[in-house]
Design a protein that fits this description.
Elements: H1 7-19, H2 25-32, H3 40-52, E1 56-61, E2 64-69, H4 73-86, H5 91-101, H6 104-118, H7 123-130, H8 134-137
Antiparallel strand pairs: 1-2
């Protein structure tokens, strides 16, 4: 499980994820400098550390490297949530508490995500949910023509 990114690591990875392409230290530096004073060598060290930790891959380009994210920000967030959940001695209670903290928008996003994971509802699945499938699957449970 990945450990949470530090503040500067997160600032760098946010750009790498947002741009969704191989980036140079100089590109990240110039964007970060719009918010803070930071040295080229600091950004280079952070990207090198992220590479060593497996967050980014790099490819040489001349005397420099281009860095690219290994996974997505949603995958990172999911891994953090999974790690936190798996450390609970009562996962169901942890989920209930987590759901209780969610905003209406987050709960809707959760419902949408569950629908996506479950896949499209098939006619067979909806028939089973309503009980209409019972008589086809188990002839013994189907009522006789005279209602018995």
């Amino acid at each position: 499980m990945p450990r949470p990114l530090g503040e500067l690591e997160d600032a760098v990875m946010t750009r790498v994820w947002k741009w969704n392409r191989p980036v140079t230290v100089r590109e990240v530096l110039e964007d970060l400098q719009q918010e803070r004073s930071i040295a080229y060598t600091t950004v280079m060290t952070v990207l090198d550390n992220l590479h060593q930790k497996g967050w980014v891959r790099r490819e040489a380009e001349g005397r420099a490297y281009r860095y690219e994210a290994v996974s997505t920000r949603p995958a990172y967030a999911a891994a953090l949530m999974n790690d936190a959940w798996s450390q609970s001695d009562n996962p169901a209670a942890a989920l209930v508490a987590f759901f209780g903290m969610m905003s209406d928008e987050q709960r809707q996003a959760l419902r949408d995500a569950v629908r996506i994971v479950q896949g499209p509802e098939t006619p067979e699945a909806s028939a089973t949910d309503t009980g209409a499938e019972t008589s086809r699957e188990n002839p013994a449970s189907a009522p006789d023509g005279d209602g018995r």
